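Reviewer 2 asked us to include a model.

Predict the structure of this chain.
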Amino acid sequence: MMKNRLVIGLMTAGVGAAIALATGVLLKDDARAGESVIATGERIGSLRKVAGPQPDTSSPHWKALSDDVGVMIRDDERLGLRGRLYVRVEGVWLPVGTDGPGDILHTVPVR
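Predicted model (structure tokens):
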């Protein structure tokens, strides 16, 4: 009987902590969204640093899926057909998905 109460108490504390943490994260993101409107120039600059080289969207290997989503496709002689998914955020192309470790070695055409 004592074990059951202890387990129930620990579970209640754990669920309460998880709810508090989730609420804190959500409120923090709302505050950050308000700041990004003020410092848009700084945010774009930091996005460009994180994104690295931009894909060459005029390349025949570039396939636009929409205005803000595209795929860079290439044929690697060792690994076969490879692709990298990009999403445009505030005018900066960010890689969000790679087909494998070969895509990280900067063999994708960039400008």
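Helices lie at 2-38, 40-51. The two ends are 68 Å apart (CA to CA). We have added this to the supplementary material.
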